[in-house]
Amino acid sequence: MAIIHISLQAKGGVGKSFLALMLSMFYRHIERPVKIFDTDPANATLFGFPALEAEKFEIMKKDDIDKRLFDRLFSQILSATDDVIIDVGANAFIPLCSYIISNNLITMLTQEGHQVIIHTSIVGGQNLKHTVNGFDALCSQFPESTGFVIWLNPFWGEIEFEGKSFEKLKVYEKHKSRIRSIIKIPEWDASLHGRDLAAMLEKQKTFDEALASEDFSIFERQRLNIIKNEMFQTIETAQIV
Fold first, then answer.
1. Which of 32, 116, 189, 203 has the greatest number of CB atoms lying within 10 Å of its CB?
2. Which CATH number is correct for 3-187, 3.50.50.60, 3.40.50.1370, 3.30.70.3270, 3.40.50.300?
3. How confident is the prediction along the chain (241 residues), in pLDDT tens digits per residue?
4. What is the per-residue DSSP string for the chain?
């Protein structure tokens, strides 16, 4: 039996690939076998990190997404013995969801003994409503056997609506039985930790690589180590691996 992690969010630019990156780095750090697929045709984030050994899976035929190509992807996943991480680009969101629903794919995977977990991001600021509605739509479309992990990302602002935190919103009450865990991404000093993290990701290095690299000063490595420990502890506490 494998755990199938799928990163999904209809809204682009809200840290969806970041959560897939953090999860992938965690797997590599603990040396647990995992197969990583990057299906984002516009911005193959995971594929750009050599240490992750992600496979770039082409879903484009000429200038359009060919949903039949998903057959090849999920035939590999159906027979997987190791866990799987799939990062889905915003432009592939609708075609993939349509494919999953029309093929009863979640049911197929669970019947093969796999556990399916959808990871989705909820962000603050002007995209709070968009990401909350996206989570609501995913829960409504996918079968009850589908578990969800919510990643609360405060990078764009505080995650609250009319003074209510996510756990106080109606959408949480509506779907809380489906939520496996809530991962709260810590808030770091943007001018210090934030800049170091951005530099690490721009260099396409994992935490373990950056901490062993002379490209970063001793203070930068210290801050990256703080980020790594806090992020990995949060993932470990979520008990999704």
1. 116
2. 3.40.50.300
3. 899 999 998 877 778 899 999 999 999 999 999 999 998 777 779 999 999 999 998 887 766 778 888 999 999 999 999 999 999 888 888 899 999 999 999 999 999 999 999 999 999 888 999 999 999 999 999 999 899 999 999 988 889 888 899 999 999 999 999 999 999 999 999 999 999 999 999 999 999 999 999 999 999 999 999 999 999 999 999 999 9
4. --EEEEE--SSSSSSHHHHHHHHHHHHHHHT--EEEEE--SS--TGGG-GGGT-EE---EETTEE-GGGHHHHHHHHHT-SSEEEEE--GGGHHHHHHHHHHTTHHHHHHHTT-EEEEEEEEESGGGHHHHHHHHHHHHHHS-TT-EEEEEEEGGGS--EETTEEGGGSHHHHHHGGGEEEEEEPPP--IIIIIHHHHHHHHTT--HHHHHT-TTS-HHHHHHHHHHHHHHHHHHHHHT--
